[in-house]
């Protein structure tokens, strides 16, 4: 019986720690991919609110705060589970979190109000039913962990748990703020640096092609009407909005809804822009009405550089004519404006506005409006220093080398390595402490045995 009980205890402990590690990996990954793309998570939260009819009651600042909080909570819970920190409290929080998420994904699977739940950001795409079964598995694992929390094997002592907690919170918030100010540290979208947009839009030979329909909402004399692309009206009509929808399924390439229509003529110039031989600048702003205009001087300078060197420069937006005119009045913009779907623009770059540099349809560089190339970035070296040079000769005109590997190395050195060193130091300290206690206990036992022997001799 005793042997059976011990076997059952070890089996339960093993199962619990396997569940704990599974949950830790899932939470850390889910939290991190959200943290590196806070705007993407915000857009997904807004999709949920629109499905519930609550979007108009919740401001952007609140959805952004929810995005940052959600990613930080998931990442921290995962790390705390991994290190077995505050075992009772953390296990209960994980169970409660998974219970709520499972209910939400059940609603998604049944009602299908949003196609992608966004649980793993843009890194891993799951259907709503796949997400539900994934959450059911994680809920089961969290129930096991919450049932026997004290059987989780600690990787760090109580004394140093505060260091891990504070370091993790600061790290994940720092990653989110850095990605928010500049651009996502890791770009999982099809418009990432190095992506060939033309090839990403191609459908393999023989594959069934999906069909899309872009509808333009125009206004004239107070009357609003919808027009297809082939029926785009003349300039007497005022642009209001545009939407693209899939009307027939088929093979879905990574990029399938990119459409660029020149506002002044109504011509579709998508292929003209993407197949242009050489460099092309694209200023991207889903809504110019809400775009940050503090750096418009840098944008105008880059536009002038493009004009001087013969590089096309377009502004892609989903704004109305009124919004474009307002932007022109504020910034003095002279570059041409084109219409593109707002969701597509938000996917292209997480900045409003943001700047793309294409070369032969390949994304060479992406910049947030907070990190636009400086004037010196367009200067040459050597005898021609101080004068603008062609992009072919400049570093910003080339694809960056080993960008992802450098970022991974920085994360490993900046976050993972300190935790590994802390864990090793903590375990070594605990081991030496155990040795001291063990030596003291042995010495005490020896002294007690000696006293017992002496007492026995005296009694004799």
Written overview of the protein:
- With 460 residues, the protein is an alpha+beta fold.
- Helix content is 52%, strand content 12%.
- It has a six-stranded mixed sheet, sandwiched between helices.
- Strand 5 (279-285), helix 9 (296-309) and strand 6 (313-317) form a beta-alpha-beta unit.
- The radius of gyration is 29 Å and the shape is elongated.
- The relative contact order is 0.09.
- The model has no long low-confidence stretch (mean pLDDT 87).
Considering the chains and any ligands shown, give keywords for the structure:
460 residues; alpha+beta; 6-stranded mixed sheet; 3-stranded antiparallel sheet; 12 helices
Task: Tell me the total number of β-strands.
Answer: 9
Radius of gyration: 29 Å
Main beta sheet: 6 strands, mixed
Percent in helix? 40-55%
Contiguous helical run count: 12
Give the termini separation: 44 Å
User: What strand line-up does the widest sheet have?
Assistant: 4-7-6-5-8-9
Low-confidence stretches: none
**What structural class should be given to the helix and strand makeup?**
alpha+beta
List the helices and strands in order.
HHHHHHHEEEEHEHEHEHEEH
Principal-axis shape equals elongated
Chain oligomer state: single chain
In what range is the share of β-strand residues? 5-15%
Give the rounded overall mean pLDDT. Answer: 87
């Amino acid at each position: 019986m005793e042997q059976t009980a011990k076997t059952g205890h070890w089996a339960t402990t093993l199962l619990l720690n396997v569940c704990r590690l599974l949950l830790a990996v899932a939470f850390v990954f889910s939290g991190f991919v959200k943290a590196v793309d806070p705007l993407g998570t915000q857009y997904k939260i807004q999709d949920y609110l629109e499905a519930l009819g609550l979007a108009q009651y919740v401001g952007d600042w609140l959805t952004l705060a929810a995005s940052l909080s959600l990613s930080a909570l998931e990442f921290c819970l995962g790390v705390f589970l991994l290190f077995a920190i505050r075992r009772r409290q953390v296990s209960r929080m994980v169970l409660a979190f998974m219970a709520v998420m499972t209910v939400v994904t059940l609603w998604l699977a049944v009602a299908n109000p949003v196609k992608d739940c966004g649980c793993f950001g843009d890194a891993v795409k799951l259907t709503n039913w796949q997400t539900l079964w994934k959450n059911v598995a994680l809920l089961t694992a969290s129930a096991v962990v919450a049932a026997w929390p004290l059987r989780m094997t600690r990787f760090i002592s109580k004394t140093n748990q505060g260091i891990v907690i504070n370091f993790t919170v600061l790290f994940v918030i720092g990653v989110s703020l850095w990605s928010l100010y500049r651009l996502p540290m890791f770009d999982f979208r099809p418009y990432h640096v190095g992506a060939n947009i033309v090839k990403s839009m191609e459908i393999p030979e023989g594959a069934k092609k999906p069909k899309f329909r872009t509808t333009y909402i125009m206004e004239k004399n107070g009357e609003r009407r919808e027009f297809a692309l082939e029926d785009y009206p003349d300039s007497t009509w005022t642009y209001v909005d545009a939407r693209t929808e899939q009307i027939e399924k088929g093979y879905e390439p990574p990029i399938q809804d990119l459409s660029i229509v020149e506002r002044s003529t109504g011509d579709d110039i998508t292929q003209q822009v993407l197949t242009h031989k050489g460099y092309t600048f694209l200023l991207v702003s889903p809504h110019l009405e809400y775009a940050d205009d503090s750096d418009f001087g840098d944008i105008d300078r880059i536009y002038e550089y493009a004009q001087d060197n013969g590089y096309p420069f377009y502004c892609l937006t989903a704004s109305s004519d009124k919004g474009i005119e307002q932007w022109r009045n504020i910034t003095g913009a002279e570059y041409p404006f084109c219409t593109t779907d707002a969701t597509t623009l938000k996917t292209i770059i997480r900045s409003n506005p943001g700047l793309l540099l294409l070369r032969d349809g390949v994304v060479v560089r992406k910049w947030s409006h907070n990190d636009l190339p400086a004037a010196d970035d367009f200067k040459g070296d050597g005898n021609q220093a101080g004068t603008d040079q062609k992009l072919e000769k400049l570093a910003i005109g080339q694809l960056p080398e080993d960008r992802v590997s450098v970022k991974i190395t920085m994360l490993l050195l900046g976050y993972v390595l300190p935790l590994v060193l802390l864990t090793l130091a903590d375990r070594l300290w605990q081991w030496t402490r155990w040795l001291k206690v063990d030596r003291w206990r042995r010495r005490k036992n020896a002294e007690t045995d000696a006293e017992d022997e002496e007492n026995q001799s005296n009694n004799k």
